[in-house]
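Aim 2 progress update. The chain analyzed this quarter is reproduced below.
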Amino acid sequence: MTATLLKEASPQPAAPADHERKRRARRRARVIALAFVFPALLLLGALVVYPVLFSVGRSFFDASGDRFVGGDNYTEMFRDPATLTAVRNTAIWVVVAPTLLTGLGLVLAVLVEKIRWATAFKLLLFMPMAVSFLAAGIIFRLAYDEDPEKGVLNAAAVSVHDAFKDASSYPNARARDGQGLTKAADGSYGTTAAASPGDTVGLGLVGVRAEDLPGDARPAYPASGRKASADELRGVVYLDFTRGGGGEQGKVDRTESGLPGMKAEAVRDGKSVASATTAADGSFRFQGLDPGSYTVRLPASNFAAPYEGISWLGPALVTPAIIGAYLWIWTGFAMVLIGAGLAALPRDALEAARMDGANEWQIFRRITVPLLAPVLTVVFVTLVINVMKVFDLVYIIAPGPVQEDATVLATQMWLVSFGGGNNQGLGSALGVLLLLLVIPAMVFNVRRFRGSQR
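Predicted structure tokens:
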């Protein structure tokens, strides 16, 4: 009886037909999955795997691609000063840009939570992500232009500078040769003949266009005939040029204009003993002078070139300037990602800290930042991968003369291969180097994503 029950309870072996049906279903599922995956694998192989393998192989051949040179391209790569500059600039990018972006994104994500129009503010900061790197490069190339009439940053710098320091009104003014004025090494002009109290001297200058004269300028002729008292020295600074021709050089003619706002000094024994500023008619006077001989000097500040702003795209600042453009584009990305992590933080921990008497800075430093560490790490590593590949901004913003000072590995790879170097063997070696530098960051990021999913 018991044996009969056990026999009935034991599972019966499946029929061969059922096993075959299941195998067919599994095989059909694999074929369908492969059919869907195959286009992606084909594109991946054509656009990623094949170019990588081809570049690795090409890096062992010379510029023509006909002669095998082994590791010579890799040796040459670290001998080339331009490549070493590219490595240095890439290191600057990797250290500075992700650090600043992660810090800015964190600060902005925390501050955005405190304002009412948080969504609009996030949209405004994220909007540059919709602008292509080409368009952003053109925008910042114009913004960094050295001409204050074109570059908005230099226009602002010149405005601030001129608000605290007066600009020269006559940067192009100069004296005629042999007309009683000599130019010193520091750019100032002084009279060749000595003058004494009671004299009136005329200081004629040229190089000032009539349309560049100040609006309050008046004819200098009346001032040139004024008599000086016994203890004063008079003079007039004028534009020694008569419109339409005529006139006498070195002498104030009736239609010649004075040069107002120019500083003049009375010099004795190499020291300035008195100073004055010319009036609308170019006249000036030094009062209370002791008897003796004096030299009248026009200081170099009268002829200083106007402040032209900052050379943003010069060799010294071109890399920081391009990094600034990169920050403008990617700050919104960092803020949104960190803001998403911030929204997922447990609010009870923050409220408990506030109830225990912690201020906002202590909460930020000891609770918010540690809890956001995984998100901050992912953002930082993602940006590191991105800056290693930066090409568009550097190529577009940096002018030709400073292209080598701003070059990074991606631009150097293109310049060596296609931008005039025509050495695709060396360019492929640079591409392999860039790949080797990117792979560790990619592996780290993939592991972080897998860890967060678990």
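The longest helix spans residues 16-58. The CA atoms of residues 17 and 23 lie 10 Å apart. These observations will guide the mutagenesis experiments scheduled for the next reporting period.
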